[in-house]
Design brief:
By secondary structure, this protein is α+β, with helices and mostly antiparallel strands. The chain is built from 15 helices and twelve strands. The longest helix has 41 residues. The protein is flat, with a radius of gyration of 33 Å.
Length: 515
């Protein structure tokens, strides 16, 4: 079995190594780090070496939108029974939500801190990984973000459903590894490498592998398996978030399709070009402000006199012995920079106005700004939807079941149903507010309010309004127009119409009889 695990580790590591250069380039672009060889060459030649924070600004815009979308609302998510008519499931959903609030209030679960880092990574690299499990020692769920450099995926999996194994590399102190011998799930006879420092950290690998429909965990230290095929009752505790699918070439056989595409990947070349243009522009401006001069040999002109301030008298025998070297034209470079900015906006879906980095756009027309903002918000909203589907909803469902299975019994003392039977839950993630500007959201609410307050609104109009609300940026339409109430209004309207028709027919018949 050790040989099989060793093969898994090496295969998964090679898959990660293929993407590591891309991740490094994306990280350097966000951190505004220039290639060291280029930086040293520019410094040696006395050239400008400014790094324009274009990618940095766009990443921060996406990160801000993600965090605002999930954490602007008071309640992050709402649990409800999948079948509202089942009183046991309804009571279980209420109890789980109450327990979750308890763990959050006591700071046992800090979703803001975890998602803050995860959303930054997903905005830069296109992928993030979060681990969620129940810690028996803490008697609480644990949620933590894992570094991509330490999590390697089954390279043959084409999607999350086909994932057969995941390798998680960790560095554990020797003293902590000593305590693992006491656990029944670990071997008691494994030996640690010799070392003088008890605080030395050793590299181990947790391997999550799927056999049939069940997940197991094994742990490898060096060439020794110190934990072998321990079943995971709660399934795979790792959740992989992506915001864009990865597109591979038809003949590409070594792609790891579990990784998502980065929205900043197309910007790395443009970022480099932007740096070159801006630095050349700065050098050209410096030459215009401090031009180089050609001085005839033997003209007996002191170089120090040429560098003196305004109004300085420079003695010379021949006035024609000095000529100013013409500097490059800066005006033409502005065309290239503006074209570069436009390409960056199209590639990332984040306008200069959204990022708050272009004062000229801020002075544009209201209509133009509105169009640019709406287009950018559509791209961001799609990314948020992808985060919901791949990361947030699966993670929150897992957390809810962990709290249901292992949470304090006092939260469930009034429930009659067995806690070994998982309830059917519907999870509603409260997003949408941060994905658009507050003004757009406020305008949408105002339009919806005016329509709902229309006197004697018909059921048909309510049905149409229900389809309009999402367009206005209101996702939770059920809170405003309940399906049961809408059907009731339709029924009442039908009965009223029938009664009215019957009354008219009766009156007409009575009149005919009277005649």
């Amino acid at each position: 079995m050790s040989e099989q695990f060793k093969q898994m580790i090496e295969t998964a590591r090679r898959g990660y190594s293929r993407y590591k250069p891309l991740f490094d380039n994306l990280s350097m672009a966000y951190l505004c780090e220039m290639n060291p060889d280029i930086l040293n060459d520019l410094e040696r030649r006395g050239k400008s070496h400014l790094f324009v924070p274009a990618v940095n600004a766009k990443v921060k815009r996406l990160h801000t939108a993600f965090m605002a979308s999930y954490f602007t609302n008071d309640i992050f998510a709402v649990l409800s029974p999948d079948n509202p008519d089942d009183p046991q499931n309804a009571a279980a959903a209420t109890a789980i939500e109450r327990a979750l609030r308890h763990y959050q209030r006591r700071k046992m679960i800090n979703l803001y801190r975890v998602f803050d880092t995860a959303f930054l990574n997903v905005a830069v690299k296109g992928t993030c990984v979060i681990k969620a499990y129940w810690d028996s020692a803490l008697a609480a769920p644990v949620v933590e973000e894992l570094k991509l450099r330490d999590v390697w995926f089954d390279p043959e999996a084409k999607n999350h459903a086909e994932l057969r194994y995941v390798v998680h590399r960790m560095y554990i102190p020797r003293a902590e590894l000593e305590t693992l011998r006491k656990l029944s799930s670990f071997r008691q006879d494994f030996e640690l490498p010799q070392a003088k420092d008890s605080d030395q950290r050793l590299e181990i690998f947790d391997i999550y592998h799927k056999e049939g429909h069940d997940w197991y965990i094994s742990t490898v230290l060096g060439s020794v398996t110190i934990r072998d095929r321990q079943p995971l009752a709660d399934g795979l505790p790792l959740f992989i978030g992506t915001i864009m699918p990865q597109l591979t070439k038809e003949d590409e056989t070594d792609a790891v399709e579990i990784y998502g595409d980065s929205p900043m990947a197309a910007l790395t070349g443009l970022q480099m070009e932007m740096n070159i243009l801006r630095n050349q522009q700065l050098d050209a401006i410096a030459l215009q402000m401090n031009p180089k001069m050609l001085v005839q040999a033997g003209a007996r002109i002191s170089p120090y006199d040429l560098r003196k301030g305004p109004g300085t008298c420079i003695p010379t025998d021949n006035i024609n012995s000095i000529r100013i070297l013409e500097a490059p034209n800066v005006t033409q470079s502005e065309i290239g920079i503006e074209h570069n900015k436009l390409e960056m906006m199209e590639a990332s879906g984040v306008t200069e106005y959204n990022a708050g980095t272009d004062s000229k756009v801020l002075n544009g027309t209201a209509t133009g700004i509105s169009i640019l903002t709406d287009q950018a918000n559509q791209r961001v909203a799609q990314m948020i939807r992808s985060l919901n589907e791949t990361l947030v909803e699966p993670l929150f469902r897992h957390l809810a079941l962990l709290i249901w299975r292992y949470g304090e019994s006092r939260f469930y003392k009034d429930l009659a149903n067995d806690r070994y039977i998982d309830p059917d839950l519907f999870i509603q993630i409260n997003t949408g507010l941060g994905a658009t500007s507050p003004q757009v959201h406020l305008n949408g609410l105002k339009v919806a309010f005016d329509m709902l307050m229309t006197p004697n609104i018909t059921p048909a109009a309510l049905g149409v309004l229900k389809h309009i609300l999402p367009i206005l940026g209101i996702k939770n339409t059920q809170e405003y127009i309940n399906d049961d109430e809408l059907q009731s209004k339709r029924t009442e309207s039908g009965e009223a119409d029938g009664a009215s028709d019957g009354g008219a027919t009766g009156a007409g018949g009575a009149a005919k009889d009277a005649d």
